[in-house]
Amino acid sequence: MIWRWLGGFLALLLIAAAPAPPAPPSAPSPAPGKGSVTGLPLPRFAALRSDDVNLRAGPGTRYPISWVYKRRGLPVEIEREFDVWRLIRDADGTEGWVHEATLTGRRTLLVIGGEQALRGAPQESAAIVARAAPGVVGRISHCAADAPWCEVEIKGYHGFLPRAAFWGSFPGEAVN
Question: Is 14 exposed, middle or buried (0-12, 13-18, 19+ CB in 10 A)?
């Protein structure tokens, strides 16, 4: 009787001591500031190419879909690269992997904070061209390096927004 118990105990110890299965492959650590696949700067901004983009838990189709974006043009920040997969982060801080084909290099913006005034010139005293509600997506036309204002287009209206009024550009970054 004690041998049966002892044998069961040893079997339990062997199972508990068995090595865990290998973890799924993760993306290699790229050189600081450069993508391991494209050689482009990291992090960098891109935009969603379509209204239906799957955000996955890992870099591959075998990983579960954790979110589906339904907003073409939404700006995202690319943080890492692995083969044809990009680790992205959105304005809310949600992170996951998307296929490179679902992204475009077009520079877009997401209006943040409260309602923002699109102005005719890069200054607070300039005439208001339009008003944009939080969550509106637009396109960045031009930002000079270290300039506090960027030239943008939102829903067909051209004007200027302060960098602090939108998400989609790094402080001091030049966007052409």
Answer: exposed
Q: Any idea how long the chain is?
A: 176
Write the pLDDT tens digit of every residue in 38-66. 999 999 999 999 999 999 999 999 999 99
Shared-domain flag, residues 102 and 113: no
Identify the pLDDT of residue 11.
38
Measured CA to CA in angstroms, residue 3 lies from 9, 12, 13, 143 at distances of 10, 14, 15, 78
Full residue range of the structural domain in which residue 118 is found: 109-167
Residue 44 token pair? 């960098």
**pTM (two decimals):** 0.80
Is 89 found in the same domain as 48? yes
